[in-house]
Design a protein that fits this description.
Order of helices and strands: EEEEEEEEEEEEE
Strand content: over 45%
Largest sheet: 5 strands, mixed
Number of helices: 0
Oligomer: single chain
Low-confidence stretches: 1-24, 123-130
Number of strands: 13
Distance between the termini: 45 Å
Helix content: under 10%
Length: 208
């Protein structure tokens, strides 16, 4: 069991310097009352891997993200359980324990037998490349609704690309976690990702 390496902290905005790193747009999954997402920057200079967890519901609607620092690895899949988040690496599995407030407090690593890759844990996360919008089909904003509440409120992930004038096939992407009321109006919003992406359609396919 590895010790806790980073305490819970406020993390309202994530800026990513380069769009070409394998995990630069992150993956996410939805637990019974939380959203978890991860980023790992594997190109030089190598940076630590981070898992972020936002508790959903309750009087505050959504908590500030809590994070834990992990070794760098290439994520292959992700699954949110009741009190753990599992991240599939190529040669093993990371299991992150959550406390009652849904803060990541420790992790352990189990290496795959004989060094063989594990079965990918797609779970309930976005089963497609570009969890937070690294590739977009044009410039239209997209909303995904991962959780609905009995009150009629819901939480949604909004991915909004904006064209970069200097490069016609690249975009500036802002991804927000939204709380919507029964009339679909935004009550609260929290930025979880901001970075560059690519338009994956038309003349832009295959490069800019």
């Amino acid at each position: 069991m590895q010790p806790v390496r980073c305490a819970a902290l406020a993390f309202p905005l994530l800026l990513l310097a380069a769009p070409t790193w394998p995990d630069s747009d992150g993956y996410y999954c939805i637990g019974p009352d939380y959203l978890a997402y991860q980023f790992g920057l594997a190109a030089p200079p190598m940076a630590p891997h981070h898992l972020y967890v936002v508790r959903l519901g309750g009087k505050d609607a959504m908590s500030k993200p809590a994070t834990i620092e992990m070794p760098q690895f290439q994520a292959q899949g992700m699954h949110c359980g009741g009190d753990t988040v599992q991240l599939d690496a190529f040669d093993g599995l990371y299991t992150v324990d959550l406390d009652p407030l849904r803060r990541p407090v420790r992790y352990e690593y189990a290496r795959a037998e004989d060094g063989r890759p594990r079965t990918i844990l797609w779970g309930s996360h976005a089963a497609r490349p570009g969890g937070f919008g690294f590739f977009t089909n044009g410039l239209a904003s997209e909303r995904r609704s991962p959780m609905n509440l009995a009150s009629g409120h819901e939480f949604a992930i909004e991915i909004a690309p904006k064209l970069l004038r200097s490069k016609p096939c690249q975009t500036e992407i802002t991804t927000r976690l939204l709380e919507l009321d029964a009339s679909r109006k935004i009550g609260r919003a929290q930025v979880v990702h901001k970075g560059k992406g690519y338009i994956n359609s038309g003349s832009c396919r295959g490069g800019d």
